[in-house]
From TrEMBL:
Residues 241-299 form the GHMP kinase C-terminal domain. Keywords: Kinase, Transferase. The keyword DNA-binding does not apply. It comes from the Bacteria. The lineage of its organism: Bacteria, Pseudomonadati, Bacteroidota, Flavobacteriia, Flavobacteriales. This is Mevalonate kinase. It comes from Aureibaculum algae.
Length: 308
């Protein structure tokens, strides 16, 4: 038995800002994926996943089934028969490993599920996001539900605000020089402590002002440029966003990357930004010349996401 594939996600723009109701843009990333599988002979990794699924079954048994009803007996039976989540999505890397698992469980065990084939009204998207937020809270303490939503629908999603989401189209990739890429920090990042740190910073009036003004302004401009294919303007706005993040989110950027981050801004060869909550995992990069960026960053592992 092997279930359908669910892909990783990349929040191109909007990390932290979406917690405070500003814009975001998330895209599926099919380089990494996961599926539910069953085996009588589990490897150590599969066994660990199977044990976690049993804990997850217990968590779902205690949730409010007026929002969503799961066939829990079937889930329990499948877990006891050796079901696990077979995934290439790295955990703690900001690309939605728990989101893909949540999407897979909803797809297989939810009754009256909302599907990608129907007319996805705003109400249906918000309902799905709410269900997924509740389901993913098991992993992060608190979840927006956006990662599983992206993985489940496998569509780019534009977040206008907490209560206003829409599937969106992104310009098709070109064989240009420019690129979006992932840079591997080779450190695991944990979402919960980073989000707590952000919430504490939000108590500071100056930090709140920076989020509401500079951070939101450049994030919104980047999203607009990206969706409309304005590459030249996009790089200008990403550079400004990269500066704002380096100045105000230092604890979320692994120390070893502070200089590299600044070098990108100074040289205009690439611009870095957080991918997810930071603290490790992947760092997102934008460059007008991918070959040049690869040369400068040759000591690091890069993954190509999108070409301009």
């Amino acid at each position: 038995m092997k279930g359908p594939l669910f892909y990783a996600k990349i929040l191109l723009f909007g990390e932290y800002g979406i917690i405070k109701d500003s814009k975001g843009l998330a895209i599926p990333y099919n380089f990494f994926k996961g599926a539910l599988k069953t085996s009588n002979n589990l490897s150590d990794t599969a066994k660990k996943s199977n044990e976690n699924l049993l804990k997850y079954y217990t968590y779902l048994s205690d949730t409010d089934n007026s929002i969503v009803h799961f066939r829990l007996d079937e889930l329990k039976r499948d877990v006891q028969n050796g079901m696990y989540f077979d995934s290439s999505i790295p955990q703690g890397y900001g690309v939605g490993s728990s989101g893909a698992l949540v999407a897979a469980i909803y797809d297989k065990y939810a009754d009256d599920k909302i599907t990608v084939l129907e007319n996805l009204t705003r109400d249906k998207l918000l309902k799905l996001k709410g269900i997924f937020g509740m389901m993913e809270s098991f992993f992060h303490g608190k979840s927006s539900g956006l990662d599983p939503l992206n993985s489940y629908l496998s569509l780019p999603i534009l977040i206008n605000s907490k209560d206003n989401l829409e599937p969106t189209g992104i310009p098709s990739q070109k064989e240009g020089k420019g690129a979006v890429f992932l840079l591997d920090s080779e450190q695991i990042g944990e979402t919960e402590p980073m989000v707590s740190l952000f919430m504490n910073k939000m108590k500071n009036e100056g930090f709140r002002k920076m989020i509401n003004e500079d951070f939101a302004k450049y994030t919104d401009a980047c999203i607009d440029d990206f969706l409309h294919g304005n590459a030249k303007s996009l790089f200008g706005n990403v550079k400004q966003l990269s500066k704002v993040v380096l100045a105000n989110f230092k604890p979320m950027i692994p120390k070893a990357f502070h200089k590299l981050w600044q070098h990108g801004i100074d040289s205009n060869a690439y611009y870095l930004k957080l991918c997810g909550s930071g603290g490790g995992g992947y760092i997102l990069g934008f460059t007008p010349d991918y070959a040049k960026a690869q040369e400068i960053l040759k000591n690091y592992k890069l993954e190509l996401v999108y070409r301009f």
